[in-house]
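[audit] Reproducing an earlier prediction to check determinism. Same input, same settings, fresh worker. If the tokens differ from the archived copy the diff job will pick it up downstream; this log only records the rerun itself.
[audit] input (310 residues):
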Amino acid sequence: MPIVTTKEVQQGLKKNQIYPVYWIYGSEAMKARELLRQIRTQLGADSNHFYSLDGKETTVDQILDIAQSYSLLPGAQLVVVRDAQLVEGLEALKDLTGPAEKMGPSSTVCVLMSPDWDKRRKSIKILSEKAAMVPCEEILEADRSAWIEYLAKRRSLALTGELQQRLVSLDPWSLDRVDQELEKSQLGYEAEDLPLEGFSVDQFVSAFLERNYNTCLSQCHRFANDPEITLPLVGLLAWNLRQLTLLFSGHTPKGPSFVTDRLRRLAEHWSLSTCQKAQRALMDLDHAIKQTPRLPLASWSVFIQKATAP
């Protein structure tokens, strides 16, 4: 069966058009959980009609037994198999598959979930040709802002431009991590509230992007020994340098217009060669603080000198 997008699944649910077997796969766990929640809500599957199985401990015969049995209580059944790629003989589930249709009160829907699916395995390939395959993969950089706004709205949280830029440039990036950062902001934990008196991540990043050598050098001793700050900070600097490099290469950086406008203003302090030099220095810094026993403060000082010194 062709790939079915999450939007197509959601549109079908609104019309009560539901596939008997879904395979939801991909690295974006929150997106997959949300889609599962919507399927369960549409089916009205309460605790008496909901079965959650672990692929590590489940056989295909157990899945078939549940899916093909009739409940003594009225209502549609939902069978969810997490880490489904670990189940042997999945091709046996092909008899449960079919096109999207209106689900009756005694219907059964099976949802397989996995971080990926191996097309080389014969059993998985056979089932994937019959089931509704729904990718929930990494959010594209161009779509991050829209998702951030959606998650903020869900929490009734007003986004500032500064917070949105910080969330767009998280590295690694996922909806779960963005939601965690929004929760911190909702509870009042901003970057300035870190347990480092007189230090602000946002102020340091601004000083760096303005190539303010003296300010950066005077601040690095406040955080250099704290990996909970330095590792995300390296990712934040890498994202900004990547966007500046794109700008100098003739490409428009992806993201909201206020971010692009800010980058254009900051570009006055940079050139393509200085951006590339800073990126190389950042790679050396990343290796130094993760792999080598050198003093972190010395590594940060060397990086700041290479990246921002006049």
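[audit] rerun output stored. Observation attached for the diff report: The longest strand covers residues 108-114.
[audit] end
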